[in-house]
Amino acid sequence: MLRHEFRPGRLVAGLAVLGAAVTYAGDAAGAWHTPWYMSFVVVWDGLCLAALAAWTHYRIRRRRPARTASSENTGAPASTSGSQAMR
To answer: Which domain of life is it from (predicted)?
Structure first.
């Protein structure tokens, strides 16, 4: 049983920010030298990739229920269910 649904955009964004943090940590520890603007580039590119991943995931998930909804026609009409039925 899944606890929550998979969100690839958030995963990519988190990895991008984590990559920027590792880059700065390596620079602070003296392991390598990183230009000051590099974290902005890493985070910006990561956010663009995250947006692309989220959009792709949205398009895939949006298309899947539309196929199953068009084949099922067993539910009650909207006018006979809910608060409108009491009027």
So the answer is: Bacteria
Q: What is the pLDDT of residues 25-77, one digit of tens each?
A: 999 999 999 998 999 999 999 999 999 999 999 999 888 765 565 555 566 66
Rounded to two decimals, the pTM is: 0.67
DSSP 1: -
End-to-end CA distance of the chain: 40
Instruction: Give me the numbers of helices (H) and strands (E) for the chain, helices first please.
Output: 2, 0
18-42 residues labelled b (16+ CB within 10 A) or e (exposed): eebeebeeebeeeeeebeeeebeeb
